[in-house]
From TrEMBL:
Keywords: DNA-binding, Transcription, Transcription regulation. GO terms for molecular function: DNA binding. It holds the Pfam family TetR_C_13. Gene3D superfamilies: Tetracycline Repressor, domain 2. InterPro entries: Homeodomain-like_sf (IPR009057), HTH_TetR (IPR001647), Tet_transcr_reg_TetR-rel_C_sf (IPR036271), TetR_C (IPR011075). This is TetR family transcriptional regulator. It comes from Luteibacter rhizovicinus DSM 16549. The keyword DNA-binding applies. The keyword Disulfide bond does not apply. SUPFAM superfamilies: Homeodomain-like, Tetracyclin repressor-like, C-terminal domain. It comes from the Bacteria.
Length: 197
């Protein structure tokens, strides 16, 4: 793994656990075992480093959006895998909170270019979910109460609220309870996949 990737991974974890305003280059340097000057070489400012973290997450969403173009996909499984991913990450503390979610909570104090990057992440996520919900409704897998775009935003709120609930109660199972309830509300018929399968 390159030093640059180690720096991104370290910043991701620090943002997830402390937030943007809760870590410094000194924290990253200590975790990665490099000098602060080395971090500045790769990322001149803390905002640059945080944007690299968010852009890495956005790249994953864009990749998932491209996969939705094929006809052969199960919308219920797609949402189940999404919630299952977070369920596992929260349970094993490998990613206890979405980095974009943590940054969104700090938007008023973020540098403008980082704030825009965070907003773009949520636009991408909303578009991905809207596509899944639309196709799922067309296939009869989902029953939507309103426009797919509104349902996508409601689902995002549910997932991020579930993350917050799990953190507030110190109980990872709270995330699973809330997320599965949200899936059950959407699904007309078909089993809801869990993190285990």
């Amino acid at each position: 793994m390159t030093t640059q990737q180690k720096l991104i991974d370290s910043a991701r974890y620090l943002i997830q656990t402390r937030g943007y305003n809760g870590f410094s280059y000194a924290d990253v340097a200590e975790q990665v075992q490099v000098r602060k000057a080395s971090i500045h070489h790769h990322f001149p400012s803390k905002s640059d480093l945080a944007r690299a973290v968010v852009e890495e997450s956005r790249a994953g969403i864009v990749e998932q959006i491209a996969l939705l173009e094929g006809d052969d996909f199960d919308p219920v499984k797609k949402l189940g895998f999404y919630t299952g991913y977070w369920e596992q990450c929260i349970a094993d503390a490998s990613a206890p909170f979405c980095v974009a979610g943590m940054l969104a909570a700090e938007l008023p104090s973020l540098p403008p270019e980082l704030a825009e990057c965070v907003r773009a992440h949520f636009r991408d996520l909303s578009r991905w979910l809207e596509t899944i919900l639309t196709k799922g409704a067309q296939q009869g897998a989902f029953r939507l109460q309103g426009a797919a775009s509104s349902e996508a935003e409601a689902f995002i709120s549910l997932i991020y609220g579930a993350m917050l609930t799990a953190r507030a109660f110190g109980d990872p199972s709270k995330f699973a309870d809330v997320a599965r309830g949200g899936l059950r509300r959407l699904v007309s018929t078909a089993a809801i996949p869990t993190a285990q399968g």
